[in-house]
Design a protein that fits this description.
The protein has 168 residues and is of the alpha/beta class. The protein contains six helices and seven strands, in the order E-H-E-H-E-E-H-E-H-H-E-H-E. It has one domain: Metal-dependent hydrolases (TIM Barrel, Alpha-Beta Barrel), CATH 3.20.20.
């Protein structure tokens, strides 16, 4: 059986001194016999989306078991739209947002624009839903939209059936 971890990251975590370096991530995946991992750079969570995404893409190119998950920050509205376009044109289809960590609301126009921009590209939108009810609110917020494109997933539950290759 092949195990895929759908919530991994690497990089410098500001809040503590836990080692979440790329070599540590790769070592832990091997130690636990995990065949693949959706992974993102923590740099992309803190207003450095382009740099974090470049770091993620480089790590995935270097480590074949890593499937790149790219991050954007809706507070960087114009840069966010350009970054999504850049990543989609590169064939990337996994995107993760951090409303709580980045301090923005899913009830915002930038969030709606992100969903709209991803629609029709086979993208998967992953949200960190650390607070009770966030996943339900996202569902209500996007109820009038075609949720099959993009599929929505939370880090608590994934609602998209597995595919062989999420990077395309």
């Amino acid at each position: 059986m092949r195990i895929v971890d759908c919530s991994t990251h690497f990089g410098q975590r500001v809040s503590n001194s836990l080692d979440v370096s790329l070599p540590t991530l790769v070592g832990e995946l091997a130690r636990h016999n995990i065949g693949a991992a959706w992974a993102y750079s923590l740099r992309g969570v803190v207003r450095l989306g382009h740099q974090g995404n470049d770091e993620t893409l480089a790590a995935a190119a270097q480590q074949g078991q890593l499937i790149p998950v790219l991050t954007v920050d809706p507070r960087q509205y114009l840069d966010c739209r350009e970054e999504i376009a850049r990543c989609l044109s590169a064939g990337i289809r996994l995107f993760r947002l951090f409303p709580r960590e980045q301090g923005w609301s899913i009830n915002s126009e930038p969030f709606e624009q992100i969903v709209s921009q991803l629609r029709g590209h086979g993208a998967v939108l992953i949200l960190s839903t650390g607070e009770w009810g966030t996943a339900s609110a996202v569902g209500r917020h996007t109820a009038d939209q075609d949720l099959r494109s993009p599929p929505l997933a939370s880090t608590a539950r994934a609602y998209q059936p597995p595919r062989d290759d999420w990077s395309r």
